[in-house]
Predict the structure.
Amino acid sequence: MFQIKNVTLIHKKDLRTILENFSLVLNDGDKAVMIGEEGNGKSSLMKWIFDPELVEDYLEFQGEKVISGEKLGYLPQELPEVQKSKTVYEYFIESPGFLDRTPKELSRLANDFHLEPEFYYREQTMGSLSGGERVKAQMMRILMEEPTILLLDEPSNDIDVETLEFMEELIGGWEHAVLFISHDETLIERTANRVIHFEQIRRKTKCRHTVANMPYRQYVEERLHAFEKQEQIAQGERREKRIRDEKIRKMEQSVGARLDGISKADRDAIGRLLKKKMKNVKAMEKRCEREDAEMTEMPEQEEAIFFKLGNKDSAIPSGKWVLEYESEELLSADGTRVLAKDLELRIRGSEKIGIIGTNGCGKTTLLSLIADELLNRPDIRAEYMPQNYEVLLNLDETPVDFLDQTGDKEERTRIRTYLGSLKFTADEMEHSIRELSGGQKAKVLLLKLSLSGANVLVLDEPTRNFSPLSGPVIRRMLKDFPGAIISVSHDRKYLTEVCDKIYKLTPEGLINVNLISVN
């Protein structure tokens, strides 16, 4: 039995309510996905469910949770700092479940996640693993401890396409309940049978939640249909109101004009009749006002983000070589292992390139080397968005301070306008970047790319922290970018909708693969 009752979460800094009187019951077989724009409280709620102490520094909360006979397995969005300095072996040896497993069981579990059994015994620190390897390690340790309920915050983040398919099987076939957050629309569409949608409407002054017992795609379609129908009804009622109000106004004017125009001789008899008629008109007006209070409201929804990436100056001539990269070998970040040999990548014009490969094969390392080369090129304007945002972000700055390059008042006003289009409130613009959600940090970096005037973008997992509702907007924005894009991604919709070519990084080099094969 898993139940939470009347949960309210309030941000301590700006006293903004991000969740109010939320209740949920999860039963065996439920696969419930939490969706909503960045900063709407999804991760905070999941932390509160697992351990309220995880949010007490920045949230005030109230509510009740009933977890009877259940064992929770929690995957955080980011590996806790205290775990990053431990070796992989130290991380696993802390779990009683690891010691209880036979070598055969450990080997089978590693194989499920496309890892070698030797992975458990690595002396490499958890913090130095690739993003996908960290997610895999955490998931394996969770499964070793045999939980009944899975709480998964972005389980698809950074993991390779092959493991994503296993993750779909794991969630879809889990005997008990799963509550998860994911940006991966394909994963959501294939696994979720319940949708929990968190929204911040009226410029984030009002929170709203919806619990729908249906698959994600059905929910999106029915929600859109309901909004369209509600809007049609509301607009029809408002048209009728305008016609009615105009009719009443003309009646008032007519009666008023006749009252003003009657002679003294007729004032007693005719005046009484006109005054009575005016009284009836006023009564009709009052009755209509009461009816107006019951009118169908125009639908309110939290709009997806929108802004344009690049301009006409970002276009690259189709014949210009953007990249001619060659390398005999690719070494691991610590220089101890050869990850790939005979690398060759050529990009011309405004091509959109996606690079895939198994976790730990060196994709991020390769992209970093490419970025270093392109950022120093005088004939192009390149910008780099790393997988770890903190490489570029000063966490103690506000978004406005980070983006402001001149200190000019007009520049700061323009930045605030752009941040507003990305659904930042005035208060959030003054928060330190450290306090922002992963998706909000990604928005700040995307805005930096937009303001830079770049014509070449080097992007490591560009869609990883955006909600599934914003996903189509982000993909369309990147597809329409007039310049070139070189990216690493495991997002199957991004790869098929945005990328012109996809290369797989293997020990033998980069291999061109079919778009269909990644979906």
